[in-house]
Design a protein that fits this description.
Elements: H1 9-23, H2 26-36, H3 42-65, H4 71-92, H5 98-105, H6 109-115, H7 118-137, H8 145-169, H9 171-180, H10 191-205, E1 220-221, E2 231-239, E3 267-273, H11 279-288, H12 297-301, H13 306-312, E4 316-321, E5 334-337, E6 347-348, E7 351-352, H14 361-366, E8 372-377, H15 411-438, E9 442-450, E10 455-456, E11 462-463, E12 477-484, H16 486-492, H17 496-500, E13 507-508, H18 510-519, E14 522-523
Helix pairs in contact: 1-3, 2-3, 3-8, 4-7, 5-10, 11-18
Length: 545
């Protein structure tokens, strides 16, 4: 038999089903091995049952597609995409759900370039291009139409009988397996990304143009604002991929916050958690006011958010971005894309260091037309190319992993690069505080919190974006700090000693919406004092909401 010997359709689908199970689902079998390791003699039986179940299921689906002019084009696309998905799952330990698909589709060109590696190309060649070429070179020996239909029906019935038989005889095993290990459905490929992509397309298609409902249109400044002598600016810094347990301010053994630790009046909050594990979820969620338990991207897109409420209250609102956009949050306020500037020393190779967010900010504060809220969206610690996120002068921890193929580096080298990004964030935030403090003519405040955390190889999991239910603490526990000028504290009646007493209490991104309204003294029906971190720490005489 030659390599390209003609095959009957049913044999071709069986071979491809076997290939999908064995070569493209290594993460699934690793997880199954972990789950069954403590089951004794029952473990191998459960693995065998899962193998037959997947083989019958895949073969049934492929047999339905195995018709002339349809099968080969569809299978080519399936092999190429599945090869890439399998690579990223093997390389970074990720799972595929709808938010992950959304995250991929919203990734900017610079982030995409970081992911393009020689290993990925070889993986795509070996599991994508070469099998697709073999498929096109191998003739499928179809029978005369009526006979082919008859044989196909028999084949389908036999496959369905095997599938139902395995489910029937192993129902208790599978019911327990998938009830206690719901993460499995996110790592069986190609069904995981097909289902996730279908959900995403259904989500974005909708039924027509998105109608954005007003939110907080009654918002206004509290009466105490009439006696303010200076203009006020609150800067909200949305970090990227920083994790709380690597902040020295939270007790990390390395000095990742040498400058912030010296900033007088800095407030560090050690117990803050994110709304999601990827930017596409966390950023719109934290500004939505919906809360993580009730959040959906569709609901957030159909109503205004915190920035709109502040605009209704009379604040100038500006979003300055050094990342991949604001994920719809800033659609109705002023926006500046700084990620593609040509600023010498700050930008190069299609991306910029986060100091670009401070470029021109001092002049803007000197000529502030009205009370303002400015959001700075960092590139932060976005991986896998951590070494690209900071200038060479900030490389304190060495050696550093200098490839996006994290599996080629030791975990310590990966951590070194990541920790260097946090030292650079420390520099940027401290510089921002110095800039605000130097402008004494403006009352200023700073709130910083990361969008989500990051896995650095613990349990062979890298990056972020795992489904929240299964995500490790490293992807959800985020750093958060605040700072307020003397003038801000005096004119708003903010008691920072009261606030400091709350620094170790459990907070989350759900608190951002109401806390910003609270600290700025914005009166509106959508404000909920129970979620205001500043509640009880502002003098009533200063117009607490």
């Amino acid at each position: 038999m030659t390599l390209f010997h003609p095959l009957r359709a049913e044999r071709m689908t069986l071979l491809l089903s076997l290939a999908l199970i064995v070569f493209y689902n290594v993460p699934f079998w690793h997880e199954m091995g972990r789950i069954t390791a403590g089951l004794g003699g029952h473990g191998p039986l459960l693995l065998a049952e899962a193998f037959v179940l997947l083989l019958a299921f895949f073969n049934l689906v492929l047999a339905l597609l195995a018709w002339p002019y349809v099968f080969k084009p569809v299978m080519t696309a399936l092999l190429l995409i599945t090869a890439l998905v399998s690579y990223f799952m093997n390389q970074y330990g990720i799972m595929i759900d709808m938010p992950m698909v959304q995250n991929v589709l919203q990734t900017d060109p610079a982030e995409t370039r970081d992911l393009l590696t020689i290993k990925m190309g070889l993986f795509a060649l070996g599991l994508g291009v070469l099998p697709a070429l073999w498929l096109w070179k191998t003739p499928i020996a179809y029978r005369p139409p009526l006979r082919e239909l008859g044989v196909r029906l028999v084949s389908l019935l036999v496959t369905l009988a095997v599938l139902l038989g395995v489910v029937f005889f192993a129902y208790q095993d599978f019911a327990s397996l998938f009830r206690n290990n719901r993460q499995l459905r996110f790592i069986v490929t190609p069904s995981n990304y097909i289902q996730a992509t279908n959900s995403y397309l259904h989500h974005v298609s909708g039924t027509g143009p998105v109608v954005v409902m007003p939110l907080g249109s009654d918002a206004k400044k509290a009466p105490s604002w009439t006696v303010h002598r200076r203009k006020t600016v609150l800067v909200v810094v949305v970090g990227e991929t920083a994790r709380a347990d690597h902040f020295a301010l939270n007790g990390y053994r390395r000095d990742t916050n040498p400058l912030l630790a010296k900033q007088a009046g800095l407030l560090n909050f050690s117990n803050v958690h994110s709304c999601g594990t990827e930017t596409a979820v966390s950023v719109p969620c934290m500004f939505s006011g919906i809360g993580r338990d009730n959040y959906s991207g569709d609901a957030a897109a159909k109503r205004e958010n915190l920035l709109d409420v502040l605009k209704h209250a009379g604040f100038d609102v500006l979003w300055r971005d050094n990342n991949s956009g604001c994920k719809g949050v800033c659609n109705r306020v002023a926006y500046e894309d700084l990620a593609n500037l040509k600023a010498p020393g700050l930008c190069g190779d299609g991306e910029c260091y986060d100091d670009v967010l401070l470029d021109g900010l001092a002049q803007r504060l000197q000529h502030l037309p009205r009370d303002s809220v400015i959001v700075l969206h960092q590139k932060g610690s976005h991986g896998p190319a951590y070494y690209k996120r900071y200038p060479k002068d900030f490389e304190r921890f060495t050696p550093v992993c200098r490839t996006s193929e994290l599996s080629q580096c030791s975990q310590q080298d990966i951590v070194n690069g990541f920790d260097n990004t946090l030292r650079y964030t420390d520099h940027m935030l401290s510089g921002l505080i110095d800039l605000l403090r130097a402008n004494g003519e403006v009352n200023s405040g700073l709130i910083y919190l990361s969008d989500h955390g990051e896995s650095l190889g613990e349990n062979n999991v890298y990056l972020h974006g795992m489904p929240y239910l299964f995500a490790p603490e490293a992807q959800k526990h985020i750093p958060a700090v605040m700072w307020f000028s003397d003038g801000f504290r005096q004119e708003t009646g903010l008691d920072t000693r009261c606030l400091a007493a709350k620094k170790d209490l459990p907070w989350s991104q759900d608190n951002l919406f109401h806390s910003v309204l609270g600290v700025l003294g914005v009166e509106t029906r959508v404000y909920d004092g129970r979620l205001d971190l500043f509640q009880g720490c502002k003098a009533a005489s200063k117009g607490l909401v």
